[in-house]
């Protein structure tokens, strides 16, 4: 008896059209459709993405999945600029339980992407940051274009690189992971490929041809997906990251935050000055937490890293609740009031103690009731 190759109807979606799902040929297309917000993820969007991915995982008519972002006419593209941080701010101050739901369900979605049983292709055209990286880095094929701008910029707002950032950044070459995590530096296509955060460069003008090949080809073998991409791929150009690698490894291999800043301060190069200035704008406490996160994650499984990050993000909003939270203050300064004058506590790296950092890594849940206990 032959397998049923008829695609089953999609379950009802609840994000108000912010996630579009359709099947063309044997390929399921997921399109983030919130272009006015650079396709930033809301809780309903996370739920829709999860629902569709689980549905297609068991649908024999779907051989592969493509994730892409809806563009804006006449403006640079974006796959996804991250999570809805205005919602985070409002929910934290209001005690809205949906904040807890968002992080639990978003991290579970990140795990699903990494463990997806079928080829999953992330088209990282344009801005792909934060939560956008979370739903892309687990892809079996990560495509970048000349428009791509990849980053984990969470330390800008007093957070840490979550959505599995500890896991994938800690696996960058050398100490590039610490550098990207702490500074939030933005990478172009060539830099992303060199850092191990992208696989292939395709010109934006050639994306329609790539998608057409995916729809028309037999994708039952994983190597078929890469062959489709290679057929239209082009060189990404030179990487500016290569020229910085020695300096990055020298400074960001230091054992402590104080050691990193002192190492940068002792060098007169433009790179050192620029990097030190960037770190001085961040929350000293959350820089130290981020450094510890990346280094702990190097020896963790993905599931354990996501559980650790779930602990961390809970503490970001509850260890110091309300306006005392570094994250709430960071969002206020950069997004709500836009005064760009966050009042970090403590204000200086020298005042961050080991006990302050260690408190973030104490799980608020026993293992048997951890919200991500089911991940393996």
How would you sum up this structure, described in words?
- InterPro entries: ClpP/crotonase-like_dom_sf, ECH_dom, HIBYL-CoA-H.
- Its EC number is 4.2.1.17.
- Keywords: Hydrolase, Lyase.
- It comes from Sphaerotilus montanus.
- One of its GO terms (molecular function) is enoyl-CoA hydratase activity.
- Strands 1-2-3-5-7-9 form a 6-stranded mixed β-sheet, with helices on both faces.
- It has one domain: 2-enoyl-CoA Hydratase, Chain A, domain 1.
- α1 links the parallel β2 and β3.
- The mean pLDDT is 95.
- α1 packs parallel to α3 and α3 packs antiparallel against α14.
- 44% of the residues lie in helices and 10% in strands.
- With 376 residues, it is an alpha/beta fold.
- It contains 16 helices and 9 strands.
- The longest helix is centred in the N-terminal third of the chain and has 17 residues.
Report how far apart the termini are. 34 Å
Mean pLDDT, to the nearest integer, reads: 95
- The total count of helices amounts to 16
* Structural class determined from secondary elements: alpha/beta
What does this entry show, briefly?
Helices cover 44% and strands 10% of the residues. With 376 residues, the chain is an alpha/beta fold.
Please outline the helices and strands.
Elements: E1 19-24, E2 27-32, H1 43-57, E3 64-69, E4 78-80, H2 85-94, H3 98-114, E5 120-124, E6 127-129, H4 131-134, E7 141-144, E8 149-151, H5 165-169, H6 176-183, H7 189-194, E9 200-201, H8 207-216, H9 222-232, H10 241-252, H11 257-265, H12 270-280, H13 284-297, H14 302-318, H15 326-336, H16 354-360
Parallel strand pairs: 2-3, 3-5, 4-6, 5-7, 6-8, 7-9
Antiparallel strand pairs: 1-2
Helix pairs in contact: 1-3, 2-15, 3-14, 6-13, 8-9, 13-16
């Amino acid at each position: 008896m032959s397998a049923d190759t008829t695609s089953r109807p999609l379950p009802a979606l609840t994000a108000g059209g912010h996630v579009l799902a359709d099947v063309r040929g044997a390929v399921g297309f997921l399109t983030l459709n919130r272009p006015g917000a650079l396709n930033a993820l809301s809780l309903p969007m996370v739920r829709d993405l999860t629902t569709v991915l689980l549905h297609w995982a068991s649908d024999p008519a779907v051989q592969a999945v493509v994730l892409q972002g809806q563009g804006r006419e006449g403006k640079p593209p974006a796959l996804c600029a991250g999570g809805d941080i205005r919602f985070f701010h409002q929910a934290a101050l209001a005690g809205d339980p949906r904040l807890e739901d968002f992080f639990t369900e978003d991290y579970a979605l990140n795990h699903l992407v990494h463990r997806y049983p079928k080829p999953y292709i992330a088209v990282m055209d344009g801005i792909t940051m934060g939560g956008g990286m979370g739903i892309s880095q687990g892809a079996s094929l990560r495509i970048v274009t000349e428009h791509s701008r990849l980053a984990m910029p969470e330390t800008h707002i007093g957070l840490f690189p979550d959505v599995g950032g500890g896991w994938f950044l800690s696996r960058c070459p050398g100490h590039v992971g610490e550098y990207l995590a702490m500074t939030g530096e933005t990478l172009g296509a060539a830099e992303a490929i060199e850092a191990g955060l992208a696989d292939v460069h395709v010109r934006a003008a050639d994306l329609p041809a790539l998608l057409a090949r995916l729809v028309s080809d037999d994708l039952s073998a994983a190597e078929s997906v890469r062959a489709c991409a290679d057929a239209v791929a082009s060189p990404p150009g030179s990487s500016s990251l290569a020229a910085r690698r020695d300096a990055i490894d020298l400074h960001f291999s230091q054992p402590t935050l104080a050691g990193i800043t002192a190492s940068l301060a002792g060098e007169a190069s433009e790179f050192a000055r620029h990097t030190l200035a960037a770190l001085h704008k961040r929350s000293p406490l959350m820089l130290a937490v981020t450094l510890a996160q990346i280094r702990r994650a190097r020896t963790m499984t993905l599931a354990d890293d996501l559980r650790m990050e779930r602990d961390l993000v809970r503490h970001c909003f509850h260890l110091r609740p309300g306006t005392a939270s570094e994250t709430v203050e960071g969002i206020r300064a950069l997004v709500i009031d836009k005064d760009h004058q966050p009042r970090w506590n403590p204000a200086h790296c020298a005042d961050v103690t080991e006990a302050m950092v260690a408190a973030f890594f104490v799980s608020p849940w026993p293992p048997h009731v951890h919200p991500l206990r089911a991940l393996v």
